[in-house]
Automatic annotation (TrEMBL):
Residues 4-39 form the Antitoxin FitA-like ribbon-helix-helix domain. One of its GO terms (biological process) is regulation of DNA-templated transcription. InterPro entries: Arc_rbn_hlx_hlx, FitA-like_RHH, Ribbon_hlx_hlx. The lineage of its organism: Bacteria, Bacillati, Actinomycetota, Actinomycetes, Streptosporangiales. This is Antitoxin FitA-like ribbon-helix-helix domain-containing protein.
Length: 77
């Protein structure tokens, strides 16, 4: 397992992270490890774009239908 060190973290940030960890009953290290794992599991923008490009768009609304619906919603609001 790798060791990470983050320098120059502002004290207010450290305090906030410690509070968030304590609210979850975790040490700061355990909380940060879980947050890093969550962040690493998220898809990258390139992965999201590739996934969207592979989607089957048949049967969905046309661009004009979408634009008209947005305009309709804006008029009602």
């Amino acid at each position: 397992m790798a060791l990470l060190q983050v320098r120059d973290v502002p004290e207010p940030t450290v305090r906030a992270l410690k509070e968030q960890a304590a609210e979850r009953g975790l040490t700061l290290a355990a909380y940060l490890r879980a947050e890093l794992e969550r962040m690493a599991a998220r898809p990258t923008n390139a992965e999201i774009a590739a996934r969207l490009a592979r989607r089957n768009r048949l049967g969905g609304p046309t661009t004009d239908e979408t634009v008209n619906e947005i305009r309709r919603i804006r008029e009602v609001s």
